[in-house]
User: Fold these one by one.
Assistant:
Number 1:
Amino acid sequence: MLTPRLTLITQAADVPEPVLLARLSAFGALPPEARARVAVQLRDPELSGAALHALGRRLRDATAALGASFLVNDRLDLALLLGADGVHLGRRSVAVADARALLGAGAFVSVACHSVDDVLRAAEAGADAAVLSPIFATPGKGPPLGLAVLREARARLTAASRGIALLALGGIDAASAPACLEAGADGVAAIRADFSGALPALCAG
């Protein structure tokens, strides 16, 4: 799969499923090449395994119909069951190599990062993407890193000739996403923000 330009992360308490699906419907107006740069990441840790699986099936169907990608947070078993395009690994997840051993060499694997050193470690581990957060203030995620750290991460990756994608997460909305891209991010991720009006410009690159 292509590196997502925009990743929508599920969290039903903040964005109920009908709202998320309504936002996803805006993708239908995009050309196929732009829709291919969009991903939905199944997260929702408060849901039971059965509920998470059911939600994942509905989102897998919705993303497949749109030509968008579908990722699963941490749960490799659900990624397999749902035919996901890849997984996102947190600090307590399995290693990148172990995820690939189970899901296959072609699976997209992103890693949660909270510092420039984390980003470099993710690159060394062979991840496809490092998700650096929080860039801006967001509930419960600690002090924001700011755009300067995003720029530093991009510079360090370039200096080390690392091809890993750099994704920005944390307090990002349609207004601040362009600044993240200008600072060196290859894409942005968000839970609460509605990017419907910004999708054509954001996914054009």
Number 2:
Amino acid sequence: MTQRINVAKHVPEIYRHFFSVEKLLHDSGLPTATLELVKLRASQINGCAYCVDMHSRDMKKAGESDERLWMVAAWREATVFTPEERAALALTEEATRLADREAVPDAVWQQAAEYYSEEQLAVLVVAIAMINTWNRINVAARVTPGA
């Protein structure tokens, strides 16, 4: 598949701001593993090969186990994630699949609120929104792994 457009080349100022948001997310105090799990799961749902590849590799470099990487797609049945991570993954799925239902169910939100402060929940919401934005840009532009 050939890349359609290099979006960063044509709107570098927008990308600069996106990367500033990413830095703020990583500096927020939310565990990096949680942020990366969120990014990987949303990217799997959205079919963004570029992001699945990048976040899997980033997680591996950070010391993530192969087992946890393999299990992200089946996290509900997997036993390798903490309750906090499971709540973040559930929130990620609901917020990523907005077209499939009316809204994020209260039960999913309440489960996440059991483990994360309001500030952390806000960071999670922004992180989910950002990865969905990245996925949509990369899928529309046909950015492929290694590009």
Number 3:
Amino acid sequence: MSEVGQPADDVLGAGTGGADAALVEALRVAERRLQRAQLASDVAELDRLIDDRLVFTGPDGDLYSKQDDLRVHRSGRQSMTRVDEEDLAVLVAGDTGVTWFLGTLEGALDGEPFAARVRYTRTWILDEDEGWRLIAAHASPTGRDTATDG
């Protein structure tokens, strides 16, 4: 039995659902490429990694598209100064993958600094030409924000 709030070991353990180890590692690499692209506001890399059909549920509960995400990075409205991964779990089932990221994000949105510990659940699809592409994501704050109010 797993702890409350933690996936069972047989779901997210080393076997990751019996998937091919190379696919699991490729998805782990794609997730970390996404994190680096977010940190750098690398719109070209984000465009490659994110499927055009993306639906992202933000921590505010609103839904956002790929174009929304690219727009805030391209315009400079959002800038990230820190993306620290604490934990990353990966599950692959056929040509679908899920990643669970837990970590701390810092940056600014519309000039307002933010810092938060968050959990992302991301759903990926495997494109035979493009590799893993993000198609759905959900972000939730976890615990207390790490923002410094002064």
Number 4:
Amino acid sequence: MTTEEVIDLLKQKSNAKYLAGMKRFGINDKDALGIPLPELRKIAKGIKTDHALALALWKIKIHEARMLASLIADPKLFTEKQADSWVKDFDSWDVCDQVCGNLLDRTAFAISKAFEYSAAEEEFVKRAGFVLMAEFAVHNKTAPDDVFIAFFPVIEREAWDSRNFVKKAVNWALRQIGKRNNNLRGHAIHAAQRILLQNSKPAKWIASNALNELSSKPSISNN
């Protein structure tokens, strides 16, 4: 499909009711058409991987076009320069999360970018760092525990950030890593206990929420 054909298709799938409800979920509806993610996934399945088309769609600056771009881009062809450019364009949590979970966490530089972005000042760039940690924990089945243990000091360091989309991502990373296996759960619980001692409101929320989930779960049988 050409870029024009894809944009025409997206406009045909526009859903006024869904668009009206996007703000209720904290989604930036500026330049949005109002297309549910399952519908975008169907479109992506029909297109399959098309890296050139993905790069072209990203430049269109339509909310759903960018989400679709994350679904059809090739992680093996995606460069660090392209990653940095896309991440700087983030203006909504859902685009951030889709790019991280569909694409960035499958690149060769996922780990280094998680560290880099988590130290950024911009809200959605910083969120991307922690979403990357969470998504990498979900999707990469072979990474050793040491990779994730190295994330805990960063999670603890940034637990002070009260911005909603950052603190939720910090919490997500902590919980998701802890759910990977029993060893990492132990490390995550200890990290949460240390975060609790920071005595700031966001740190208390991040730690309490994580401890509530991780401490109540049964042992994970397949370490």
